[in-house]
Amino acid sequence: MPKAKTIYVCSQCGAESPQYFGKCAVCNSWNSLVEQVNTAAEVKTGLPAARSRRSAKSPTELKPRLALTLDQIEDHPQARLTSGYQELDRVLGGGIVPGSLVLVGGDPGIGKSTLLLQVAHQMGAATRVLYVCAEESGQQVKLRWQRLAPGDGSRGASANGDGKAQAVGRQLYLLPEIDLETILMELESLQPTVAVIDSIQALYYGALTSAPGSVSQVRECTSALMQVAKRTGISLFIVGHVTKEGAIAGPKVLEHLVDTVLYFEGDRFASHRLLRSVKNRFGATHELGVFEMVDRGLEEISNPSQLFLGNREERVPGVATIVACEGTRPLVVELQS
């Protein structure tokens, strides 16, 4: 039986150390090393580079095994999916790319789950959507949606004749589960067009001994979800918690694995929310979407300049109006001295 090996992993950058230190030697963060026990024995094998040197061929005999040139790769044009919200589509670069991974981060209570639940509800009218609620039960998610949309037909689709409400009830699926293997099997079986994981810090992979939310758990769960998304073409929205410094909790490799990183910002005690992209492989970065939290959830603000302009009916000394640009969107802002 292989002997267990204890290592210490930095919760900020993912660096490993054989012994505990108060300060990470890589990212210089304090009190970030977490103990992790590895039971699997490391098997050392000959490196592929060493084997290739032993069987070296002449330059005329060299040929690729699996690699293709750009000309050999076939073009498969794919239309972007609309989320039902123009502000979200703008931030994503024109819509949701099939097979992409979108990471949504933000402070607790800012509205991440509300936004993605509304998106799942909108898209569920036309295609299959899977909402994995790892932090809530299915009944709790349903109660939350009924609170946000009390007059919506999804509360009892069979009670009225609205065909769209019935379609939403059939196409939007809830899965209250934290086990990664069960979630992967459901994705393979259902084959939804879009899936929402809420949240990645709550998932658990049984092959690892660390607790949910640890560096290794977040890394392995995200990697497994990425492989399924790229192979099947499922678009994944992943909710991520943030630290007190405002960065997404977990290893930095989490942001490298996904295709798009969005931050949902705003004051919890104010009504307006800003959705900002800091990474986007399929569009421009630093795009901005504006929402307003009302009693029935989040609503889009199609003209954000109205928020930053005061009363223009009378002239006030010491007031200037400028035009600022966020991404590709111009914003008219009023400055007061």
Describe it.
Helix 6 (180-190) packs parallel to helix 7 (215-232). It contains 8 helices and 14 strands. It is globular, with a radius of gyration of 24 Å. It folds into 3 domains: 5-38; 86-302, Rossmann fold; 305-337, no CATH class. The longest helix is centred in the middle third of the chain and has 18 residues, at 215-232. The strands form 3 sheets. It has a 9-stranded mixed β-sheet, sandwiched between helices. A 3-stranded antiparallel β-sheet has the order 2-1-3, with no helix packed on it. A two-stranded antiparallel sheet has the order 13-14. A hairpin with a 7-residue loop joins strand 10 (272-280) and strand 11 (288-294). Mean pLDDT is 82; it is low at 41-47 and 153-167. It is α/β, with parallel strands linked by helices.
CATH architecture of the largest domain: 3-Layer(aba) Sandwich
* Morphology call: globular
Assigned CATH superfamily of the largest domain: P-loop containing nucleotide triphosphate hydrolases
Query: What low-confidence regions span 5 or more consecutive residues with pLDDT below 50?
Result: 41-47, 153-167
SS-derived structural category: alpha/beta
- What percent strand? 15-25%
Lateral strand order in the biggest sheet? 6-5-7-8-4-9-10-11-12
CATH first level of the largest domain: which class?
A: Alpha Beta
H and E string: EEEHHEHEHHEHEHEHEEEEEE
Number of domains: 3
Mean pLDDT: 82
Count all strands and give the number: 14
What's the alpha carbon Rg, rounded to whole Å? 24 Å
Distance between the termini: 73 Å
